[in-house]
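Hi D.,

Good news: the full-assembly prediction came through. Inputs first.
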Amino acid sequence: MTTKKTFLSEEFLPKQWYNLNADFPKPMPPPLHPGTGKPPTPEDFAPIFPMNLVEQEMTPARWVDIPAEVREVYRIWRPTPLYRADRLEKALDAPVKIYFKNEGVSPPGSHKPNTAVAQAWYNKAFGVKRLVTETGAGQWGSALAFATKLLGLECKVFMVRVSYDQKPYRRLMMQTWGAECVASPTDTTEAGRKILAKNPDSPGSLGIAISEAIEQAVQRKDTRYSLGSVLNHVMLHQTVIGLEAKKQLEALGDYPDVVIGCAGGGSNFAGASFPFIADKIAGKQIQVIAAEPTSCPTMTRGPYAYDFGDTNQTTPLLPMHTLGHDFVPAPIHAGGLRYHGMAPMVSHAIRLGLIEPVAIDQVETFESGLLFARTEGFIPAPETNHAIAAVIRAAKQAKEEGKQKTIFFNWSGHGLVDLAAYDAYLTGKLKPYSLPDEEIQRALKAIEKLPKIA
Amino acid sequence: MTTKKTFLSEEFLPKQWYNLNADFPKPMPPPLHPGTGKPPTPEDFAPIFPMNLVEQEMTPARWVDIPAEVREVYRIWRPTPLYRADRLEKALDAPVKIYFKNEGVSPPGSHKPNTAVAQAWYNKAFGVKRLVTETGAGQWGSALAFATKLLGLECKVFMVRVSYDQKPYRRLMMQTWGAECVASPTDTTEAGRKILAKNPDSPGSLGIAISEAIEQAVQRKDTRYSLGSVLNHVMLHQTVIGLEAKKQLEALGDYPDVVIGCAGGGSNFAGASFPFIADKIAGKQIQVIAAEPTSCPTMTRGPYAYDFGDTNQTTPLLPMHTLGHDFVPAPIHAGGLRYHGMAPMVSHAIRLGLIEPVAIDQVETFESGLLFARTEGFIPAPETNHAIAAVIRAAKQAKEEGKQKTIFFNWSGHGLVDLAAYDAYLTGKLKPYSLPDEEIQRALKAIEKLPKIA
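Then the structure:
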């Protein structure tokens, strides 16, 4: 038996999620209430999130039980296959073994349902009947539409208008799973009407869509808001990826020297890497790399500071790497990596030296993704191409150093509904782009007057 | 351990394909050379197919070894998961167990690479450097693009112009895997120029595209033609589906009372059902159902007769259920079921009473597919929805009869690049459509003067 695709039996599906907050050598700075300047109380979150998820957001527990019904839904696509990328290895001709987790096998095609299913379940357990969320390119919205349908909740998604118009496939996916999907800004919310009054043709933004979703969530007692990244409980749910991978690698008698993921809000990266970072804290010598786009270099060029999670300043202040809540990233194809901030847990781990961030240009990422598709077969999502580019860099480095290395990375999703991006690359329409310094300086003005991290 | 997704280990991947031709109680009528009226010799096929595949097309052997390198590529996505559709069962409230094979986990998202990989390998072994084929909606073209890239051959695909223009995603998939994809008719072939002279804006057809592909294949010594359905060797390669399913069901201690697949050219249906039909010939009491669209009712309303495989009458005469080689099916969303004929092996099995064909209207198929997506999670291809509709009919029948039944069906592919079809259904744009009798009578004039099956 070789190791191409392996270890899919029930026993590799974890019974608990792992919480890195229990093992950080130094605790994370708390979020702050923008009004009081103090950490928010659980009650502050009550209109937005169900209390069981608020507790999970704040829990110091190392392990959190995965509810049986969540595991039952996970079993539709989990455990996900661990692959040995032997054809890619051969093409790179480097002294490396490359493994990846294929999170693209879920019904919506990405890692997002790992937390969507969990969030839907906790909301249902708390008596919530309906979830409202926002989505940019549509990965998160489609995952929540899938999860709520299977668990029997209603779902409404505010989708950024420019994506709603230009990327119909993810919207159609949401509708196929029975969710209501509307183009944001709408005239059904205060926040939306304010924008439309100024600009009736507004293309929308993630910041506006978040404000619309939160506004509608707090209006109805049976409704809550749901977020697909950034928060602690989202990172927690995603750890099924790394926990499975560790067991699968262990069954192969292997362990990685390098762990790699792409990071936008941070959730797929955290999910794949945190169980390995636990070992690093305990003394293991491993390198953990988070790859982001040069057009939105939150981790590599944004300061570690308190900032709002959304443009409209409705969230608590979060301690994170940020380019400022006003920052509007260029419309790159990797829509999932277009976020001004980075999850507080990932940001804290960077500060502690546990993670090395790297920024990669989109042309290099598509070149890497194309090599992957033409050797391993599966066509990666544009976001995932950032992880693949970092893997290829690590393989080349191992060759230069003359060292044998084992690389593990998270293949966060497939690119079957992102093929227009490959077309742009293949026809030479993609150009290299690094965010200019002056744009960063301008964007960071938005956080000048906010409290600083101690 | 439950049975949601199971038995994915190496041992379930077959080492041999199964050939139903070895077990038919009565042999199939031979194909006929249209010029001589006699069965074609292997040499007749030599300019079109490599001799090792011609031999396989004609072999009486019951088992054919799967080459090691083909199995290595299969292992990228095979064995495919066998699922218990317990959420669908619950929604149907019928005394049935429903199992399905998820063939959508392959990189192109359907069962097509099962034969594409095999055909690419045999051509390569024969010294061929380049394959030419045609594709309608693009499932087959994308599968051959994937297979040739992984095995190191060049690939050219003539894609029917109307699909080339209207369905860019499959074309982009082919290009991502490095294939050349052109809109047919082209001005690079005699056949294409003839059509363009009459109508420069011709939308193309599968018949024209086949003629263009064959014409180019025979021009170059390093090139051969490849077909994704209908032929015996294609049915043979697809039997990995049914062979795996039998082993997986056996490991669960189960065996189906009803086996179901959708059938256009017949390959996914044959692949899933032939290993079970072998048992039926040996005495097992099982029902085998092939589902087709009412808009293209080849099996249910077309006679069993000799006919050409293509519109331009370039192929041998094949003994099959046919609506006549001139027949142009309505532009339904299930593009893979729009073919005037049915594989000779499937047609023969129908005549022998081994298979029950059923025609289902597209509105019922999408209603069924939507119920599947909203219970089991995965969004099915429009073709696959025909199988699901037949499953739901079988479940309702079991309920009416008050009988416990185990149903197995082939989930031939996902619908993630066919979501426009779901949109048409959800917005009420799909209308019921049965092919009128007078159209069938008109189409069948094309075969009036051809030899009859003895």
